[in-house]
Amino acid sequence: MIHNIIKKITSCDGDKKKIEGKVVLMKKNVLDFNDFNASILDRVHELLGQKVSLQLISAVNGDPTENGLRGTLGKPAYLERWISTITPLIAGESAFKVTFDWDEDIGTPGAFLIRNNHHSEFYLKSLTLEGVPGQGRIHFVCNSWVYPEDQYKKDRVFFSNKTYLPSETPGPLLEYREEELVNLRGDGTGELQKWERVYDYAYYNDLGNPDEDPEYARPVLGGSAEYPYPRRGRTGRPPTKTDPNTESRLKLLMSLNIYVPRDERFGHLKMSDFLAYALKSVAQVLKPELESLFDSTPKEFDSFQDVLNLYEGGIKLPDNVLKNIRDNIPAEMLKEIFPTDGEGLLKYPMPQVIKEDRSAWRTDEEFAREMLAGVNPVIIRSLQEFPPTSKLDSKVYGDQTSKITKEHIENNIDGLSIDEAIKKNKLFILDHHDALMPYLRRINSTSTKTYASRTILFLKSDGTLRPLAIELSLPHPEQDQFGAISKVYTPAEQGVESTIWQLAKAYAAVNDSGYHQLISHWYTSSKKHSK
């Protein structure tokens, strides 16, 4: 009997069941280029025993040492063959084997802890366990950057690909879930760093730069009856020296590094394109001397050819401008983006729509297609009444009813009457009249000028849209209560009327873009944080 007990004890480890797992991750890369220094340092850490470890967390059994409130932790297991797994020459995924000692006290794993003891972060995509007793395969979708463990106050935790209502979450996982939520909320203090995952909000208190000059001071937007603005993502940068209520700003080029939770930043491929084109655009305002490269009106395009030049030939930048860029942007990010002499820096890829025909953008069909395929198609709505009316208070703004008449459009709606076209859902409207009219006096008092606009479109039998009329409106020159001064423009293909029609379409497109950025994107998606 004693012999059997000794045998069982000494052979326990050898007979213990193993659970095989596969970890898929991406090693640290910068814009498709391998960070070889990071790769070498990670290998050194491996040789020194500083590995990447994982521990399974039970979803069914509580840890007695934690009063049963937290799931039982399994023994650490380590990623295998990190050193011998060569980082791909292009940014790609690597798969690593991990072997867990199975413990019946674990039961069904519902989560796992991971510790990155390497020098560099990596992007963890998934963990898949095979042959879990009573469960078979268990998959964990991660899709998150994991930084070295000394950057975190708590170990990173990931949960299995199984959803629960809060009331149905297994008890052993509850504290892990609550702890994760606390980590994501943050404590509202300190400057947030790139490895943090905090989602927090702040007032718009970083719009000014009073340290540079008092004239650059700006009020805080949000948190007051005077400025009831939505919130922005909190960054926690130090205050300015001259105004403790104003948060300091990053330099122009470094603004690309403003805090955003790492998992929400552009991926390496998208960031590659974004950074390249952003820097090309930013370069235009880096140095005053760059303006001399254009002409006497550097802030304007004097002709359509000026626009095409950005795509066809590009503009050579002087060395001092390029030096400013290189002094502020890491070298590995510039490796393939900028040639050393600046040749063609401001050369952009040719848009598909004008590759074959430089004037294709001018057609009414393309105007409507871009409206529908663009940034703000959800604002287009079915026209339900004619002429279109306004919801602005008539006591304040007078008569704002549209001046578009049936004579403007009936010749272009395939023989239908206005009523028939409305009943058949053939007429649509892009209406930015009410949104802009109350602010036009203020807008047009600046160097920027615009109109309030209404655009009527017709749904053709081939499923495409065609613009029928564009109404451009201004406030009455005397007072708002006298209503709008409006003019209606219709399609034309020849002479001055054709040029004016192109301008009308341009104003409608500009309003659509501005409304999207300010209202649909910024205000509507952010206003819930203003309470």
Automatic annotation (TrEMBL):
Q: Where is the Lipoxygenase domain?
A: 163-531
| Keyword entries, A-Z | Dioxygenase, Fatty acid biosynthesis, Fatty acid metabolism, Lipid biosynthesis, Lipid metabolism, Metal-binding, Oxidoreductase, Oxylipin biosynthesis
Q: Name one Pfam family in it.
A: Lipoxygenase
Record-linked SUPFAM superfamilies? Lipase/lipooxygenase domain (PLAT/LH2 domain) (SSF49723), Lipoxigenase (SSF48484)
Single GO term (MF):
metal ion binding
Q: Name one GO biological process term.
A: lipid oxidation
Q: Extract the InterPro entries matched here.
A: LipOase, LipOase_C, LipOase_C_sf, LipOase_plant, Lipoxy_PLAT/LH2, Lipoxygenase_dom_3, PLAT/LH2_dom, PLAT/LH2_dom_sf
- Locate the region Disordered: 221-246
PLAT domain: from which residue to which, for each copy?
34-160
What's the family? Belongs to the lipoxygenase family.
Q: How does it assemble?
A: Monomer.
Protein name, UniProt field: Uncharacterized protein
Natural source organism: Carya illinoinensis
